[in-house]
Amino acid sequence: MEITKKTVLVTGGGSGIGYATAKLLSEKGNKVIITGRDAQKLEKAANELGVNYIVGDVTSTESVNGLVAKLESEYGDLSVLINNAGVGFVYKLGEGANAFDKARQEFETNYFAPVRLTEALLPLLKKQPEAGIVNITSNVAFHPLVVLPTYSDAKTALHSHSVSLRLTLSSDTNIKVFEVMPSLINTDATKDMGGEQHGLPPEVAAEEIYNGIIKDQYEIFVGEAGRQHADYFNDPKAAISKFNQGLY
Predict the structure, then answer these.
(1) Which residues contact 120 (CB under 8 A, 6 or more apart)?
(2) DSSP secondary structure string, 60-107?
(3) C-alpha closest to that of 78 among 112, 15, 35, 49
(4) What is the per-residue pLDDT across 181-191, written as a single tens digit (0 to 9) for each?
(5) 7-243 has which fold?
(6) Which sequence spans correspond to the domains of the chain?
(7) How far apart are the C-alpha atoms of 115 and 83, rounded to whole Å?
(8) Per-residue pLDDT for 198 more than 90?
(9) Confidence at residue 46, expressed as pLDDT on a 0 to 100 scale
(10) Using CA atoms, how far apart are residues 35 and 66, in angstroms rounded to an integer?
(11) Which of 79, 122, 208, 247 is least surrounded, with the fewest CB atoms within 10 Å of its CB?
(12) What percent of the chain has pLDDT over 90?
């Protein structure tokens, strides 16, 4: 899929992978719009990147409706949606973990939000000669990490949804569905996970996303995720044990 001179929406574009991806795609000659909840942070990022921005909360029905209406009226050539916004809690399951409330927040942002926004934007994407949906999941989408238990659940759900959506849209549309599965990336959101010490720069993820899209690589692995994926399908029990070594 060509990704130049296209109009691209990046959710959670104010920092991390979203920021780095918006920067790279803008440099490649695309018109980029970033969206997020923090108006001040978003405006600062947009000014730094020289891109457009729309303040919005992808977990809010009212906000999403407003975002879609603005895109339809001002960006009618939107052809790429990158569902990047995410949230995760580092904890372990067990008594007093408050897993339900944590899971609800994680599913609202990591699963329900991209499902809703994608469906709402399908009519606009279908109008384009070529379009793409990019869902950012994780290496925990194919095997769980015990210190990110319900985050793993949400990313697994988005992985499954991405597969179903890809197959469905391939039958009668020009919309391609990509899934990006990064290993640990150094972002503000991964500080509690050791991202500063062990994570890859978000620019690495952005490069892999861009290269994967232009190669029609529908499952894009970043960092150790490719090897971890191969290990899992070779020996699931051993791979999960290795992935969670020393954590339980």
Answers:
(1) 64, 65, 68
(2) -HHHHHHHHHHHHHH-TTEEEEEE----------STT--HHHHHHHHH
(3) 35
(4) 999 898 766 66
(5) Rossmann fold (3.40.50)
(6) 7-243
(7) 9
(8) no
(9) 98
(10) 12
(11) 247
(12) 93
Which is the catalytic residue, given 111, 151, 210, 232?
Answer: 151
Alpha-carbon span 246 to 248, nearest angstrom: 6
pLDDT for residue 191: 62
pLDDT at 193 exceeding the cut of 90: no
Tokens of 46: 């947009």
pLDDT, tens only, 61-98: 999 999 999 999 999 999 999 999 999 999 999 999 99
Q: CA 151 to CA 139: how far, in whole Å?
A: 11
Active site residue 151: yes
pLDDT band with cut points at 50, 70 and 90 for residue 15: very high
- Name the token pair of 35: 């969206």
Q: How far apart are CA 130 and CA 99, in angstroms?
A: 41
Check the CA dihedral 27-30-31-34 and report its sign.
negative
